[in-house]
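Appendix C: a fully annotated inverse folding record. The material below is reproduced so that readers can follow the format used throughout the book. The structure is listed first as tokens, followed by the designed sequence.
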């Protein structure tokens, strides 16, 4: 048997624990229970989360809206860093939505628009950083 106090093994005929002196008797094997958490279904949760129609629709519309917003100042070369940032964010959102079962016209059109805007902004930034000598 085992000591109820310290968990050391006690001889069956002993009345006290040799280690800590606790009276033996109503002792059982110490319950060394490690907290065993059930495996977290992270992948499933994440998939369900991304597959929820509301979520996909929301990020699609936000991504599409970002494309529209950046279109308003994509023609201003000096705004290129902002253009790039906004459209890159919109592109990520649209791609996330496209990766779900609930892809829609906003995520598709937004993705295409944001790809084009990111491309334009990249050229603008390249020109700003390293102006062609002919200008
Ligand atoms: Zn003991």
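Designed amino acids, in order:
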């Amino acid at each position: 048997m085992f000591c109820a106090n310290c968990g050391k093994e006690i001889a069956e005929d002993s009345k006290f624990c040799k280690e800590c002196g606790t009276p033996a008797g109503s002792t059982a094997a110490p319950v060394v229970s490690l907290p065993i958490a059930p495996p977290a279904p992270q992948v499933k949760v994440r998939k369900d989360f991304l597959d929820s129609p509301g979520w996909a629709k929301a990020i699609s519309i936000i991504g599409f809206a970002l494309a529209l917003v950046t279109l308003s100042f994509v023609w201003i070369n000096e705004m290129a860093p902002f253009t790039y940032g906004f459209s890159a964010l919109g592109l990520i959102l649209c791609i996330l939505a496209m990766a779900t079962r609930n892809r829609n016209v906003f995520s598709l059109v937004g993705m295409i628009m944001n790809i084009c805007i990111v491309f334009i902004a990249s050229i603008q930034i390249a020109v700003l950083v390293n102006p062609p000598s002919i200008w």
